[in-house]
Specification:
By secondary structure, this protein is mainly alpha-helical. It has eight helices and no strands. The longest helix is centred in the last third of the chain and has 42 residues, at 192-233. Pathway: Phospholipid metabolism; phosphatidylserine biosynthesis; Lipid metabolism. One of its GO terms (cellular component) is endoplasmic reticulum membrane.
Length: 234
C-alpha cells in the first residue's frame, strides 16, 4: 500500500514529463490506488493465507490409485513445494529499514520504466513486450525478493543472491536506456512545488530515521538506567 500511494504521488510529480500521468483525481485514488491496487493487495493476502494453510502431499504420481488423484497431482506440480512466510518488519533494525527503503525505490523504478518505455520507445500499450516485461519482473522479482529476505533474516547469509544482482543490473540498465534515448524529457525542469513536496518527504524520512534508531533508543536506554540506579539506591 505504501508503494501504491507513493507511485500515485510520483505520477503527480512527473506529469510535466509523461503526458499519460495526467489523470483525474478519481482515476489516481479511487480506480488505481483503492480498487486496482487495494483489491489486488487484498486478493494477494487471501491467496497467501490459503497457501499457508494448504496441506502439501508430495506422493509419487503412480502411487495414487485413482485417475482423478493423478490429475490433481499433475496440477499440483505447479504449486509451491512448501510455504515460507516473511514479515517486512521495517523498523526491526536500521539495516532492515534502509534495505526496505532501497527495495521501495527499485519498485518505483520498475513501475516508472513501464510508462517511460511506452512513451520514449513508442511501444503501444497492447504490445506483447509490455506484458512480457511485467511478467518477467513478477517471476524474477519474486525470487529476488526471497533472496533479499534471506539476507535480512538469516544471520548466516552474508551476501545477496545472484538473482538480486541480476534484477538490480536490469533495472539500472533500463534507467540508462531511458536517459540515453530521451534525455530532453528526463531533464525537463521540475516545478517548484513538486521539489518542495519531495524535499519535505526526504527531510521527514531522515528525521524519523534519526528519532527511531538513535534518539528513541537513547531515551529508552536512559529510562532503563534510571530504573537500575533507583533499584541500587533502594
Amino acid at each position: 500500500m505504501v508503494t501504491s500511494i507513493g507511485f500515485e504521488i510520483l505520477e503527480y510529480s512527473l506529469e510535466h514529463q509523461l503526458p499519460n500521468f495526467s489523470e483525474c483525481w478519481w482515476d489516481h485514488w479511487i480506480l488505481d490506488a483503492l480498487i486496482c491496487n487495494g483489491g489486488g493487495i487484498y486478493l494477494g493476502m487471501k491467496t497467501c493465507e490459503y497457501l499457508k494453510m494448504k496441506p502439501y502431499n508430495w506422493r509419487g504420481m503412480w502411487t495414487i490409485p485413482t485417475v482423478r488423484g493423478k490429475m490433481v497431482r499433475v496440477f499440483g506440480q505447479f504449486t509451491p513445494h512448501d510455504w515460507l512466510e516473511f514479515d517486512w518488519r521495517p523498523t526491526a533494525s536500521l539495516k532492515r529499514w534502509l534495505a526496505l527503503l532501497l527495495i521501495t525505490c527499485f519498485l518505483f523504478l520498475v513501475e516508472l520504466g513501464t510508462f517511460s518505455f511506452k512513451f520514449i520507445l513508442w511501444i503501444p500499450p497492447p504490445h506483447f513486450l509490455c506484458l512480457s516485461r511485467l511478467l518477467f519482473f513478477l517471476l524474477a522479482g519474486g525470487v529476488s525478493m526471497r533472496e533479499m529476505f534471506e539476507y535480512l533474516d538469516n544471520r548466516a547469509c552474508k551476501r545477496f543472491g545472484r538473482q538480486s544482482w541480476v534484477i538490480t543490473a536490469i533495472i539500472i540498465t533500463e534507467v540508462l536506456i531511458v536517459l540515453k534515448f530521451d534525455w530532453q524529457t528526463v531533464t525537463k525542469p521540475i516545478p517548484f512545488h513538486i521539489v518542495l513536496v519531495w524535499t519535505k518527504i526526504a527531510i521527514a524520512l531522515v528525521l524519523w530515521t534519526i528519532y527511531q534508531f538513535w534518539f528513541k533508543r537513547f531515551i529508552l536506554w536512559g529510562q532503563r538506567k534510571t530504573i537500575q540506579d533507583t533499584k541500587k539506591h533502594k
